[in-house]
Amino acid sequence: MDRRDKLLLMIDSFVMGAINKIQMLNLSNAFINLKRNSELKGNYNECFVIGNGPSLTQEDLNVASNYDSINVNFFYEGKYEFKGKYLVFVDPAFATPRGINYVKKCKKANPELKIVTDYSNYRYFKKKMCLEKKDIYYINTALKQHGDYVKMDICRMMTGGLNVIPVAIETAIGMGYKKIYLLGCDFSFYGTKDPGKHFYDEKNKKCTVDDYNTVGNLIRCALVQQHHFAIQKYCRKHGVKIVNLTPGSLIMAYKLKKIRK
Question: Which of 52, 245, 248, 249 is deepest in the core (most CB within 10 A)?
Answer without folding.
Answer: 52
